[in-house]
């Protein structure tokens, strides 16, 4: 079943808002937020990503943008066939011009093919397989701020340099998990470490990780790398503590941990964990201003780097479409992406940046450590910023894994 609904801003449909301002009656740009509204990535993306896309439209309007815009949302249920079917139906029947967010790398790769075939735009904020701008890159795809290459080189390298040179991976058995495990393993071995073993579990059907944790504990590893995210990561960290892995000297490496995951973990489990991020709400006055807007919409789920990416990539898309004119923007998604690449980016969440020829956004990363309870000034005051990492260290080179764009 395809679940889809139009969303409104300020309590009224966009078409009515624009009509009241005397906008020319023309078919609006339509953005479909394809996300996880009910599964393990609900909090890391989900309704807050939808809120961020709507906020981008509002902010575009506040900047003087006059394009008519509608936002739709649907739940892909973490199934590639459902995701691609929704994308195709949206484009063919609903006139959707761009699809945004799309957590779950298997779903994202399937949707990217539909978008390329139909010459629309994929505004990727959530899926992190490096294949999206590597082996399966597309002139119709923009991947905003994070991928498995970045996570491996930021978090993985920091763990090895801190003495964690023997690894065991617990991995979600699908495209994203494989990519994160493989990219991190490359970093570990390049720095002189060793991978002692790995265990891949069925996704999204696993909640009991005891057998995988027992294998990790028996392996002799110094580090257990969790190549997963969302609810699975939260469960893995909790169960690792119950098994006593940290007490036995094994370090936990959450390779893709979001602010929302750190918040979901009790402080006794999260304090001291090291991870990497491309956005944190308390970086500066601009990130705090952006976060306040989103927290007003979703007060129980403050924005993480996925949510911020959904906002920023949508805002930049709207700026590019406005520069081209709505008729040209609707005629060719590839042309819109080219315009997005040609324009510098700027927004409250990420500041200034750029999009490279292969569709990869160029933004720094931050190595962070989760605060102890006594160090926190509020419910979402969770991170110490340890190191800012430049794009040259965490963004893969052009031509990575066979991508020909920009070469």
Identify the CATH class of the largest domain.
Alpha Beta
Q: Given the helix and strand composition, which structural class is it?
A: alpha/beta
User: What is the terminal separation in angstroms?
Assistant: 41 Å
Helix content: 40-55%
Task: Give the tally of β-strands.
Answer: 16
Going across the biggest sheet, name each strand in turn. 1-3-2-4-5-6
User: How many H/I helices?
Assistant: 15
Mean pLDDT: 94
By CATH, the topology of the largest domain is: Rossmann fold
- The CATH homologous superfamily name of the largest domain equals Response regulator
Question: What would CATH call the architecture of the largest domain?
Answer: 3-Layer(aba) Sandwich
From the alpha-carbon coordinates, what is the Rg to the nearest angstrom?
Answer: 20 Å
- What does the largest sheet look like? 6 strands, mixed
**Poorly predicted segments:** 1-24
Which strand-content bin applies to the residues? 15-25%
> How would you classify the quaternary structure?
single chain
Query: What global shape is seen?
Result: globular
Provide a compact summary of the structure:
The protein is an alpha/beta fold and 407 residues long.
Question: What report would you give on this structure?
Answer:
Helix 2 (46-62) runs parallel beside helix 12 (305-324), helix 3 packs parallel to helix 4 and helix 12 (305-324) crosses helix 14 (333-342). Helix content is 41%, strand content 20%. The longest helix has 20 residues, at 305-324. The N and C termini lie far apart (41 Å). The protein folds into two domains: 4-146 and 283-363, Response regulator (Rossmann fold), CATH 3.40.50.2300; 149-277 and 364-394, 3-Layer(aba) Sandwich (Rossmann fold). It contains 15 helices and 16 strands. A hairpin with a 3-residue loop joins strand 12 (345-347) and strand 13 (351-355). The chain has 407 residues and is of the alpha/beta class. A six-stranded mixed β-sheet has the order 1-3-2-4-5-6, with helices on both faces. A four-stranded parallel β-sheet has the order 8-7-9-10, sandwiched between helices.
């Amino acid at each position: 079943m395809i679940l889809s609904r139009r969303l409104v801003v300020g309590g009224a449909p966009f078409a009515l808002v624009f009509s009241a301002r005397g906008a020319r009656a023309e078919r609006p740009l339509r953005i479909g937020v394809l996300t996880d509204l009910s599964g393990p990535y609900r909090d890391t993306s989900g309704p807050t990503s939808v809120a961020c896309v709507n906020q981008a439209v509002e902010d575009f309007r506040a900047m003087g943008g006059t394009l008519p815009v509608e936002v739709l949302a649907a739940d892909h249920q973490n199934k590639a066939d459902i995701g691609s079917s929704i994308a195709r139906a949206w484009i063919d029947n609903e006139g959707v011009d761009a699809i945004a967010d799309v957590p779950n790398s298997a779903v994202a790769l399937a949707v990217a093919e539909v978008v390329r075939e139909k010459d629309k735009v994929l505004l990727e904020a959530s899926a992190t397989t490096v294949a999206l701008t590597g082996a399966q890159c597309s002139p119709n795809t923009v991947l905003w701020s994070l991928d498995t290459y970045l996570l491996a080189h930021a978090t993985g390298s920091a763990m090895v340099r801190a003495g964690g040179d023997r690894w065991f991976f617990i991995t979600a058995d699908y495209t994203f998990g494989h990519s994160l495990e493989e990219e991190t393993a490359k970093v570990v071995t390049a720095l002189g470490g060793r991978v002692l073993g790995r265990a891949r579990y069925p996704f999204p059907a696993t909640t009991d990780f005891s057998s995988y944790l027992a294998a990790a504990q028996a392996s002799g590893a110094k580090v257990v790398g969790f190549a997963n995210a969302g609810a699975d990561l939260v469960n893995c960290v909790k169960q690792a503590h119950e098994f006593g892995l940290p007490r036995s000297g094994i370090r936990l490496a959450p390779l893709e941990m979001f602010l929302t995951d750190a918040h979901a973990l009790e402080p006794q489990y999260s304090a001291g964990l090291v991870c990497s991020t491309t956005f944190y709400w308390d970086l500066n006055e601009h990130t705090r201003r952006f976060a306040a807007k989103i927290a007003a919409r979703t007060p129980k789920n403050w924005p993480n780097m996925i949510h911020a990416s959904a906002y920023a990539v949508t805002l930049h898309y709207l700026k590019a479409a406005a520069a081209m004119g709505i008729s040209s923007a609707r005629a060719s998604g590839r042309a819109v992406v080219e315009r997005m690449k040609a324009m510098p980016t700027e927004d409250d969440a990420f500041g200034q940046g750029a999009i490279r020829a292969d569709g990869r956004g160029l933004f720094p990363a931050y190595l962070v450590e989760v605060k102890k309870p006594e160090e926190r000034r509020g419910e979402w005051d969770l991170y110490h910023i340890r190191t800012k990492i430049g794009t040259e260290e965490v963004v893969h080179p052009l031509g990575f894994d066979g991508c020909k764009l920009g070469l």
